[in-house]
Amino acid sequence: MLSVKGQVESGGLNHVPSKYLYHTNLGERISSDAEVIPTIDFSILTSGTPDQRSKVIQDIGNACAEWGFFMVINHGVPNLLREETIRLAETFFNLSEEEKREYTGTQLFDPIRYGTSFNVTVDKIRFWRDFLKIHVHPSFSAPNKPPGLSEILQEYSKSVREVAEELFKGISISLGLEENYIKDKMDTESGSQLLVTNLYPPCPQPELAMGLPPHSDHGLLTILMQNEHSGLQVKHSGKWVPIDPLPNSFLVNTGDHMEILTNGKYKSVLHRAVVNGKATRISVGTAHGPPLETIVSPAPELASGGNNPPAFRGIKYREYLELQQSKQLDGKTCLDHLRI
Ligand SMILES: O=C(O)CCC(=O)C(=O)O
Ligand SMILES: [Fe+2]
């Protein structure tokens, strides 16, 4: 398994190798409107007046229902911590191929997994992306090199978890539920948190390859940041909307398990990562879910009565992850397998 970075750096790559050719017109239905995802001021959620707080909670609810994605500003995670996380993540990818290979996971639940594409055992075509995935909660793992990586990822994961917990409160209230509903029902304090670092090296023919094809995320919430290069696109009203996050912001999206829990009220939206010809793009996302053994099904409060029956069957989070990983990413959400 040769990483994309390794291939790019071996030199002389002036075209996309055939196994990476992605046969979709990337320009197709890119939104030309200046659409922007909603922005949520996190500081209002934590310390606004009661009126400001209910307004921002309403905004969160609308963002989850209409976009499944929003940008979070004033989140309190120090910029230095974010920058160091990205910098040290990059130094991991700068290790030699041999050093990185030590972390090649073979199993989905290996606590540390370095790899390329999505899942090379099922991918029919390869994606222009290398990754490092680590389980950071309830128990924390990280590669022991380069020096400092493990410490910074631990600190970063903890800070982001705090943001997630506040967002879970706001989301619970926005659904007409008690503030701690998601925290308690999904046991998020002992929940699973998976950190994924994506590295998309510059691509000689960016319109012919794909970093990550259309997919939805599995957890309750994903919190994502990136270096200065954009590439994320979100499906909205049938079009792909390129996302240019504000400096120092997080992108947050509701995942498949939020869609299950809310009985489809909040959507887990398709998104993809395109590549560019000039620069290495890095993104770091954390997926926040319940403990792996939790069975998630639609909340009875949101799925009852004749006109609102449960739309999904329940599934253990662990089994859902296995299901997702066993399939090719093909633009359909894995959730379709659970629809009643
Ligand atoms: O790199 C990005 O912007 C998106 C990454 C992503 O969607 C993922 O890791 O699930
Ligand atoms: Fe994603």
TrEMBL record:
SUPFAM superfamilies, per this entry?
A: Clavaminate synthase-like
Q: Supply the PROSITE patterns for this chain.
A: FE2OG_OXY (PS51471)
The UniProt record lists the Fe2OG dioxygenase domain at 190-290
Q: Specify one Pfam family.
A: 2OG-FeII_Oxy
Instruction: Report keywords, A-Z.
Output: Iron, Metal-binding, Oxidoreductase, Vitamin C
* InterPro entries in the cross-refs: DIOX_N (IPR026992), IPNS-like_FE2OG_OXY (IPR044861), IPNS-like_sf (IPR027443), Oxoglu/Fe-dep_dioxygenase_dom (IPR005123), Plant_2OG-oxidoreductases (IPR050295)
- GO molecular function terms listed in the Swiss-Prot or TrEMBL record: L-ascorbic acid binding; metal ion binding; oxidoreductase activity
Q: Which family does it belong to?
A: Belongs to the iron/ascorbate-dependent oxidoreductase family.
The name under which this protein is listed is Fe2OG dioxygenase domain-containing protein
